[in-house]
Amino acid sequence: MWIRICAVFAVSTICLWAACGSGLPGSSSVVATINPPNPTLAAGATVALTGNGTGFTQTPLPQWQMQESTSVANEHCGFLVTSTSQANFTNCPMGYVTYDPNKFPSIATYYAPPTAGIYHVQFIATQFSTFDHVSATATTPVTVTP
Q: Which distant-in-sequence residues (6+ apart) come within 8 Å of 146 by Cβ?
């Protein structure tokens, strides 16, 4: 009898989760973009970037980072505007990004390093539900000239 009650409870729980759904769109229907695409700027200069996303069923949370980063305190050279204590070229020789995580579309500022090159800024938009999440990522090359 006890096994039957547990089995009914387990099946009921699974059916409830399936009926409620996650409220998330399918991962193939969400898209992230960065504007302007492919900016060019002088070493040491800054550029404003806008990250946006489509296909989400709720406002996603934004995150910005540098693709080349190996991680600075798990920030990947993308810093909240309120916590930029490690935002420097020693920690982030490929440049870094600052942004406000409470705004969407998301405005960010890329700080070009003193070294010319092509660097890659990434924007990630993520929508969470109780049990899961869905994300879309956009990457744009940034050309830094001498």
A: 42, 43, 116
DSSP 116: -
- pTM here is 0.81
- Residue 134 neighbours by CB distance under 10 Å: 21
Q: Which residues pair with 27 in a beta bridge?
A: none
φ and ψ at 103, to 5 degrees? -125, 140
Best CA proximity match to 51, nearest among 82, 87, 84, 78: 78
Helix, strand, or coil here: 122?
strand
Q: Position of tokens 């991680």?
A: 71
Reported as a single tens digit per residue, the pLDDT across 1-46 is 444 433 333 434 333 344 345 588 777 789 999 999 999 999 999 9
DSSP letter (8 states) at residue 67: T
Q: Which residue ranges form the domains of the chain, and what is each CATH number?
A: 22-145 (2.60.40.10)
